[in-house]
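Entries read chain and fold; for instance:
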Amino acid sequence: MFLTITTTGTPERDATDLGFLLHKHPGRAQAFSTSYGTAHVFYPEATAERCTAALLLEVDAVALVRRGKGKGHGGAPDAALAQYVNDRPYAASSLLGVALGGVFSSAMKGRCTARPDLPVRCLPLRIEVPALPARGGAALVRALFEPLGWQVALDVVPLDEQFPEWGDSRYVRLVLDSEELTLAEALRHLYVLLPVLDDAKHYWVTADEVDKLLRAGEGWLPGHPEQQLITSRYLARRWSLTRAARERLEMVRLAESDDTEVERIDNAVTEEPDPEQRSTREPATDGAAPEIATTVNAARRNATAEEAGTGETGTHEKPVSLAVRRREAILAALHACGASRVLDLGCGQGQLVQALLRDVRFEEIVGLDVSVRALTVAARRLKLDRMGERQAGRVTLLQGSLAYTDRRLRGYDAAVLSEVVEHLDLPRLPALEYAVFGSARPRTVIVTTPNVEYNVRWETLPAGHVRHGDHRFEWTRQEFREWADRVAGRHGYAVEFTPVGPDDPEVGPPTQMAVFTLTTPSTKEEKAA
């Protein structure tokens, strides 16, 4: 199993700087023990004009059989004989990828203490792999490497040169050239893509492989056109690990699109207690207002009853929180419009999804959120891992951003944005409007948002503060109606408004709800519906 890395020098830069980058002296041959054999590093040529480093991996075939059995463990994908007669000692595979990561670990991380200026430089690089298994053929090799800035030259190895009628094997001789990459980037590409092309891991794939993939894929994997294939093959097609990797890569992509940090995007889960579990007078953390648990009028009635000595308070039922009232209002609106396939956009920790699942009238429920952490909490809340097959078939949790159109959201009866719009910066609202009303276009859209006028009724909320630290704004009733009317008129919807919670005669309800109904279908499918 063999691989070479070659660079050329210039009058300003010595080619043997490659030795500094690899942390391996060009004047010495070195050997390193691995789990499955011995890795040798040596330099066939090392001059100022041209320098080549070679990695030769001697695989201990007996150790390979003893340590792993069957596909995904020992790397031998076929019958018992294949454990002893196979290509593992000769063809580049995950064995070589592991050797790269171990022998050249500092180079992969872009570290060079002796010459800290070298790792950030792009070099003229040539990578040669004499025997590379390519499940997917030459086209897949090009599809994986060319988007990363490599010029790809390859020869398909025939099964037998003496018998050309037998056709080609699955092996290729690969040569990669680039002048646009650093050595660290090149090594990370090889570390991931060699086992992807081989498509047979020689060791058991566990959850820490997701972290390894994301570290090696930093800067290139989130935007790679073959990202799904890469993650699936690298993680040995383990569905749970592949999904976790794709969710984290999507977070990276969204953060890069927004020019922000991943932590800022994935902020939907806080350490605050569930608002429904707070007592009426318990203050929210970080200056956020608690969800109201009783109405002002009820409190006044209780006070009057106490003064009159009626004892009404002693028989009062447990107060109903505003969160529960909001969900009840949403469910009533969904029943009124006859929806059976519902989107919960910005589903957070899954409270509304849980309520929808309890009602058999909702045949298909999709919860979408940008936060992976929130979706993880939602999955635990719903007990998806223990849910029966029929019930599980009714619910889907998706990761995505409402700032972008998403084909997965088209064709549904209704969409709910419950306490979502106020978490977006105002300049981003037009993108959400188009993604929901212009692209997804459900027959009904339900939007709830806080009424800022009602904030004066919160005893624990300082004047001028919003109810939650992540709220970018809170609208008055007039501002909400003006926004809703504009959106409805622009996208062919009619809109009606409903108060949620006690409708105070002076400041209105704590939550305001708009129900949009599609009146102007724009596609044949919508007109047929």
